[in-house]
Structure formats: structure tokens, C-alpha cells
Amino acid sequence: MSTSGQSKSSSSTFHFAAGLGSGVLSAVLLQPADLLKTRVQQSGSTSLRTVIRDIARGPQPVSQFWRGTVPSAWRTGIGSALYFSTLNALRQHVARSTILKSSGIIAAGKESSNYSSSSLPKLSNLGNLTTGAVARASAGFLMMPMTVIKVRYESNLYAYRSIWGAGSDILRKEGIRGFFSGFGATAIRDAPYAGLYVLLYEQCKKRLGVLRHAAPSSINLETYKSMSGGAAVSINFMSGLLAAGLATVITNPFDAVKTRLQLHPNRYGNTLQATTLMVKEEGLRSLFDGLGLRMTRKAVSSALAWTLYEELIRRAEVKWKEQKESVL
Questions:
Q1: CB distance 23 to 78 below 8 Å
Q2: How many whole angstroms separate alpha carbon 182 and alpha carbon 188?
Q3: Closest Cα to residue 161, out of 172, 171, 149?
Q4: CB 30 within 8 A of CB 298
Q5: With 278 labelled, which of 22, 89, 297, 324 sits at a CA distance of 20 to 30 A?
């Protein structure tokens, strides 16, 4: 399918809606893992087993595992919608740019569209890395206030009873600046993560697609038909798991610093001070607090979100193509 067809058939509004739905679903399903990660990271001396035991012994233990689901769903849902729609707009712009085509930002030739498990624009590694990072940083800045509220709502250091109450308390005590606590660490974490994720995700899809068909490299890939829906879903999901796992390990230190800054802004000050203090008092291990939980959650949530998003777009593409052919 041509890039022009893609831009006409799947509008920015649909990409926004698809991102919203996939984000909300993954946030609700994986909220317990996110809450446990926050509790573990808020204190380097607390183990996962201790956190689970404390919650299980407290009042309404089941509902406590889903504490903060509403702000998390809002943040992840709207954040995913902004991210996917922005990413699509950037990729469409890059794909149509003749200057960027000549510079190699766009994947050369038609090989990238073969064995493809999606109909999204195909870019080079640099193009995927750059568009992913810019889209995530932009969406992250817009959603930062909700991110701060979510982290504090999940933590047991604050006794917030509602989102409105949390927002009012932060505004009264810290001003507007309080809603952007930890943005530096968040941007340093999210932009590289998203860029690496998109790069690794596209590479995994490409290689898994070739492996699935077991085609010798000498065979012209254009002779093969587009991938079936079931195969596309499985390849997208597996690619999401692999890409998220690798990207999470690389960026986890920034996530640990970000959490400390959002929970203790007065103590840690800024990203550099927080990193220095954490390493000095707790060692390098503190930068990887919650890695297992974050890797599990990010891998599954990214795989779910991207697979659902890509499947919605793919189905929309098929439906649009059928409607176009019926008119012709």
C-alpha cells in the first residue's frame, strides 16, 4: 500500500482513538505491576516480597493492588493517543520528504514492505529512532502533571483520596513546578526508550517475518503476499516483548531517579543530584530498583498496546481498501 493511501485511509483522529483504546486497556490490566514498582522504588530497602505482604495484610488488599488505576488509565490512555498520533504524523511527514529520502532516513527500496506485519510507513533505523524519541518526549511533557499525580497516588507516602485532591495539594504546596517534578529524568528515560523501542520493534518484526517464511535471502521478497492477520498479531506481540525488554534494561536508571524525584522533590532536587545521592547512599543497585517489575510491565504493556494499535490500523486499512475497490 502506498504512503498516500495510508495517510488518507487512517486519519490522525483514528490513530488517536486507536492509541487511546490500546493505552487504557494495557494500563488497567497491568496496574498492579505499576503500583508494586512504585512502592519498591520509593525506598531502596524495600523488597518486592515485603511490599506484597504489606498490601495483602492491609484493608481491602485486592482493590489496593489497583490503587491509582484511574489516573494511570487517564495518563496512559491519553499519553498513548498523543504518542501514536504524533508518531504517525512524524513518520508520514518523513516518508513524504524528498530531502529525507535522499539522505537515507527512509528505508530504501520495497523490501521493507514485504513480510510486513503492519501497514505503517517504513523508515530506516535512524528514522525510527528519531521519530520515536521526539514523539514520546512531546507526549511525555504534555502528560507530566498526570504522571506526577499517578506516582504519588500509588505511593503510600501520600494520603490522597482523589485525583482532584492530589492535584490541589501539589498546586498549594509546590506550585505549577510541582507538576513537572522529575521531568528531566522522565524525558531522558522516555525519549531514548521510545526511540530504541521503535527501532528494535521494527527490526524484530522484519526478522521474525523473514524467519516465519524461512525464505532464502536470494529470493525476491516481492513474490510473497502480505501476511495474514493471525501471523501479524503474533509477530507484532513477540516483537513488542523483545524490544521492550531490551529498551527497559538500558533506561531503568532514569526511571528509578524519576520516581525518587517525584516522591521526594525537596530531598533530591534535580536529576543529577538525585543520581549522585542514590549511588552514594545505596550504591549502583538503587538505579535498578524495580527493574524486574518494570521490564515485565513494559514488555507486556508495550506488546499489548502496539499489537492492538497495529491491528486496528491494519483492519482499517483493509476496510478502506475494500471500500475504495468497490467504488472503482
A1: yes
A2: 10
A3: 149
A4: no
A5: 297
Alpha carbons 257 and 272: distance in angstroms, whole number: 9
The length of the chain is 328
C-alpha radius of gyration, the chain, whole number: 21
Instruction: Quote the cell numbers at residue 6.
Output: 495510508
DSSP 163-175: HHHHHHHHHHHH-
Mean pLDDT on 248-275: 85
- The 8-class DSSP code of residue 111 comes to G
- Report the pLDDT value the prediction gives residue 225, as an integer from 0 to 100: 42
CB 266 within 8 A of CB 239: no
Q: Enumerate residues 6+ apart whose C-beta is below 8 A from 203.
A: 125
Q: What region, left, alpha or beta, does residue 58 occupy, with left being phi > 0 and alpha being psi -120 to 50 degrees? A: beta
Digit-coded pLDDT (tens) for 270-321: 888 999 999 999 899 888 887 887 888 788 888 988 998 888 887 877 777 7
Nine-digit cell string for 307: 499489537
- The span from the CA of 231 to the CA of 283, in Å, is 45
